[in-house]
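Notebook entry, cofactor series.
This is the third protein in the set we're modelling with a bound small molecule. For this one the ligand is NAP. I'm keeping the input format identical across the series so the outputs can be compared line by line later. Sequence and SMILES below, as received.
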Amino acid sequence: MSKMMHAVRIEAFGGPEVVRWQEIPVPEPHEGEALLKVRAASVNPVDYKIRNGKYPAVQTDKLPYVLGRDACGTVEACGPGVTKFAKGDQLYAFVGIERGCYAEYVIVKESEASAKPASLDDVAAAAVPLAGTTAWQGLFRCGELKSGQRILIHGGSGGVGHFAIQFAKAKGAYVITTASEAGIDFVRQLGADQVIDYMKQRFEDAVRDVDVVFDLIGGETEDRSWRVLKRGGVLVSTLTPPSQEQASAHGVRATRFTAQPSSAELGEMASLIDAGKVKPMVTKTFALRDAASALQIVEAGHTQGKVVLTVD
Ligand SMILES: NC(=O)c1ccc[n+]([C@@H]2O[C@H](COP(=O)([O-])OP(=O)(O)OC[C@H]3O[C@@H](n4cnc5c(N)ncnc54)[C@H](OP(=O)(O)O)[C@@H]3O)[C@@H](O)[C@H]2O)c1
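Returned structure with ligand:
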């Protein structure tokens, strides 16, 4: 008989009531895969979007579905051909959409995981993979941010934004960010050079000539962002695909991207973290079996830093 584990699963799309705490078989690692014993997993907006049935890559054919896209844990076993990891290694990972981390065990591929930053405990390490990778790819792959450039980050106090501020500062950029009054001290502590209280001031009246806009809010915030960019600048969104007509009218580049798991980038982030240049901020933790409540907190849209689930 297969070994069993607990997992947080949905069998239908909907609100918090569809989130179930169930016993399911522990998965087996195949070629190039490791079985990770999960110590902590983070909550990202994608998790409640999937639960709500609002995430295109997870349709009814994927149900029942284990939630959770990133985690930190210990390698329990390796499948054939695994060369980078061994039993007992402590890893952090951003897994493919077909697997879920809200479970006592999850399969990770070599291309999705890296050694966990040595300076972090399990909870802090679990906060990094998806949000950190999104910030990293938005800034450096899509935005091509360079030292000395000016960047405006919309939503700097959230999970992705709080990493983006720190990565941009570590790169040597001048960082402007929007936050509500509750988040102003938080983003300043992270290193933001200029903070705009978006509830009190329109950012486009306070900012000019930025090289990169990193938009974690979308919609109207994106529409109002064109005129803060200098010619030759770039608008990078994690949400709304930007208008290419507006981009060419303003002489800028504009792109929307989906973050992809990258072991190499997790390794680069771990180096920055262990060098003391970046610190994940976890503002709330919940037990894994209380994932439904944790998702509701993140869905409310006012998280500072990250919310993390712990596995006993
Ligand atoms: N494309 C991708 O691959 C990808 C990857 C990761 C995330 N995303 C998306 O990117 C978005 C951000 O993700 P996240 O993990 O950072 O979310 P999050 O942690 O839930 O972000 C919440 C933060 O946004 C701030 N905020 C809300 N409205 C704002 C506004 N109008 N202006 C400025 N700040 C505002 C909130 O602060 P206050 O409430 O204090 O204002 C809060 O601190 C989500 O929609 C997520 O789905 C996409």
